Amino acid sequence: MRSASSTLRTDEPPSGGPCITVWNLDMAYGDVLVQRDLNFTVQPGEVFIIMGRSGCGKSTLLRHMVGLHPPARGDVLYDGESFWRSHPHSRARMLRHLGVLYQGGALWSSMTVAENVALPLRKFTELSAAEIRRVTALKLALVGLAGAEDYYPAELSGGMQRRAGLARAIALDPTILFLDEPSAGLDPVSARLLDDLILDLRDGLRATVVVVTHELASIFGIGDRAVFLDAETHTMIAAGPPATLLKETANPAVRSFLTRGASEGADRSTRRATAAVDPEKANGAAREA
User: What is the model's pLDDT at position 85?
Assistant: First the structure.
């Protein structure tokens, strides 16, 4: 399989093409390198997955892509236009087309659900109060929270908080949605319902969706393509459709992640079973391993 980091290696970022291009991106906090040489594209209308083990830099990459943290090197392009090399006014214009769901929903605890969703409408539009109430009710209905306008975040379940955060993320009808660990901590049923909602919103808004996650059910259930960020080598070591990566990758880190370490788990289970029957044989196998 072709190395994921071997693409787009030029001295200047490409123009035109995909709706998102991450070009020669290095991420660092001071002298601490997080990831380097990140190169990938996101095509219009797809659900693109950023995956990897905890601490590899997935959420940091999202912060670079949505303008919250400048890269140490490289750039992010939207429809061929440089984000980090652009004037602040141009960046603000590009950001108006993005919607972001942060981890846990990131709702303002002192505001009602309706007030949270209405916040970007009040800040970035000239809609009247009545129009804002109408749009807010529509967005909440789209995520299955009709009638929850007057609740506070603390009165909602974890899944409902994510849905409220998603309603706020789509308040301005973005063309690109960024979702940071949307189903983390949810039970399997709630996570599946949220995945279904993400696909419905993608189709209804005709949006492109970028999802940061390590949840395999979401990766395989909704992901069209994915990149794998590796914490040890500090770069991306695989890219492609998740099912294809599972089938074809020869990289042990990627395979272990996509199978939840099934082979290692099987070896441990075998050793435990052997130990229960024949402790001497188990000790010998452990020494050989």
Answer: 93
CB 78 within 8 A of CB 18: no
Q: Looking at the domain assignment, is residue 280 inside a domain?
A: yes
Task: Kindly give the parts of the chain with pLDDT less than 70.
Answer: 1-17, 261-289
Q: Count structural domains, the chain.
A: 2
**CATH code of residue 44:** 3.40.50.300
Domain residue limits at 33: 1-97+176-183+212-245
* In a shared domain, residues 220 and 285: no
